[in-house]
Amino acid sequence: MRWQEWATVLLPELGMGVERLRAEAEFTVQAYAKYFKARGVFVPEQVVQSVETYCLLERPEFTAASARRLERRHRELLVVSRVEPETGRVHGMLDGVRQVFVMQAMPPKLRRVTVWEGEFGLEAMAVFLGRSGLMPGADSWKRYRHAAWRRMVTLADERTPRLAAKRWRWHDLRHTYALQLLTFLERQMDGVEPDLVARRRRHRSYLSGHIRYNPLLIVSLRLGHSSPETTYAYLDYTDDLVHEYEAAFAGWLGDPGEEATYAEIAARAFQLEKQPAGAC
């Protein structure tokens, strides 16, 4: 997801605060996606569990501190009274008028002022909260990123993986995800190919003969690229520094060697049934 997409996710989209049918989550981004292009987003179970931990341990402190402030502003907020998980609709009051919205059609500006009744009173429906108790804006996210970089540099020692030459951007996380998923799919398809020229030749054959299971097209769909040509540029990096971070990513994926998270994401890309390892 692009930063504006994940920064504006609402809790019900992850199945939180509503009746959840599955351990993982799946929803559609549209009004807050680039060019308003709708695409499906799949959130693996491990990620949902991480957000649940955050909501249990850290989020209450912010919601408790901001409840009174939000109550005083309630007329300018969309106060949600009911969520329909099956249709993606939310019912609420905005500026004294009862209204109904489809979540995927809610732009960032509206998402920022969307609240519901929580343990301490009104609280934002957004996953991430700023000091105001509402969704952080672009400037706040920039400050968070700069602060994180300063901590990384300060705490770095001989055990630290190689740091980038310059401060990372939020979009770099999206690129890293794309490279990791592409590398995983390539290995599932044909194993490790050490020769760059051979790998490029292999991808051309995928485009003509294996469209449905082509790793490049799966990643392109996951990223919401308008053309696979945009994703094609990523091939220049799959043999580069990304391999130095394999050990770090292994800790995200559960038991060593399973790589369940990327397998789930790949399968969901084309609504495929789960297959045995190596069948992608």
Task: Lay out the secondary structure.
Blueprint: H1 3-7, E1 25-29, E2 39-43, H2 45-57, H3 59-72, E3 78-84, E4 89-94, E5 97-102, H4 108-112, E6 114-118, E7 121-124, H5 138-155, H6 170-190, H7 196-209, H8 215-223, H9 228-232, H10 246-250, H11 260-269
Parallel strand pairs: 3-6
Antiparallel strand pairs: 1-2, 3-4, 4-5, 6-7
Helix pairs in contact: 6-8, 6-11
Describe the structure.
- This protein is an alpha+beta fold and 280 residues long.
- The protein has 2 domains: 3-124, no CATH class; 170-269, no CATH class.
- Helices cover 42% and strands 14% of the residues.
- The chain has 11 helices and 7 strands.
- It has helices at 3-7, 45-57, 59-72, 108-112, 138-155, 170-190, 196-209, 215-223, 228-232, 246-250, 260-269, and strands at residues 25-29, 39-43, 78-84, 89-94, 97-102, 114-118, 121-124.
- A 5-stranded mixed sheet has the order 5-4-3-6-7. A two-stranded antiparallel ribbon has the order 1-2.
- Strand 3 and strand 4 (89-94) form a beta hairpin.
- Helix 6 runs antiparallel to helix 8 (215-223).
- The longest helix has 21 residues, at 170-190.
- It is globular.
- The chain starts with a helix and ends in an 11-residue tail after the last helix.
